[in-house]
C-alpha cells in the first residue's frame, strides 16, 4: 500500500503542477469552454484574475504532494480546488467529467491514507471543553472612568 500511495501522490502532484503552471504559461492549448454558464464562469475567472490564485494553489499543492512530509497540507489546499473542478464539470461542462472523477478518486485515496493527520478535525468536541476547570481565570481591567 505504501508504493500505491507514493504513485498516487506523485501522479496527483504532477497533474496539479502541470495544469497549475499551464494557467500561467499556456503551454497546453485550452479549448474554449462550451456556450452558456461554463463560458460565463471561465470568463469571470480570467477577467477577475482569480484563475491565477487557483493556479498558484494548484502549483503549491502539487509541489507539496511531491514532498512526502507535506502531503496533508497539500490535500488541505487542493481540496476546495478539486471540489470546484468536479462541480464545474458535473454541472456545466460534462465533457471533462471523467478526468475530474479520476482526480477526485486519487485525492480521496490519499485522504484515506493520511486520515490519521486529519483525525483532530473529524472528531466531535471532547466533553470537557466547556468545563470551568479547563478555562483560565478571566482577567478584568481596572475601571478608569
Automatic annotation (TrEMBL):
Protein origin, superkingdom: Bacteria
Transmembrane regions: 7-29, 49-66, 73-91, 97-114
Keyword terms: Membrane, Transmembrane, Transmembrane helix
Name of the molecule in the record: DoxX family protein
Amino acid at each position: 500500500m505504501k508504493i500505491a500511495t507514493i504513485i498516487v501522490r506523485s501522479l496527483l502532484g504532477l497533474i496539479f503542477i502541470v495544469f497549475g503552471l499551464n494557467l500561467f504559461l499556456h503551454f497546453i492549448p485550452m479549448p474554449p469552454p462550451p456556450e452558456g454558464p461554463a463560458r460565463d464562469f471561465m470568463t469571470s475567472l480570467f477577467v477577475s484574475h482569480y484563475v491565477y490564485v487557483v493556479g498558484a494553489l494548484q502549483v503549491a499543492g502539487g509541489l507539496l504532494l511531491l514532498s512526502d512530509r507535506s502531503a496533508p497540507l497539500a490535500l488541505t489546499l487542493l481540496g476546495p480546488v478539486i471540489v470546484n473542478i468536479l462541480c464545474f464539470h458535473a454541472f456545466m461542462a460534462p465533457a471533462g467529467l471523467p478526468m475530474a472523477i479520476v482526480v477526485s478518486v486519487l485525492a480521496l485515496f490519499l485522504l484515506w491514507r493520511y486520515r490519521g493527520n486529519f483525525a483532530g478535525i473529524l472528531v466531535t468536541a471532547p466533553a470537557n471543553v466547556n468545563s470551568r476547570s479547563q478555562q483560565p481565570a478571566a482577567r478584568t481591567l481596572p475601571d478608569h472612568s
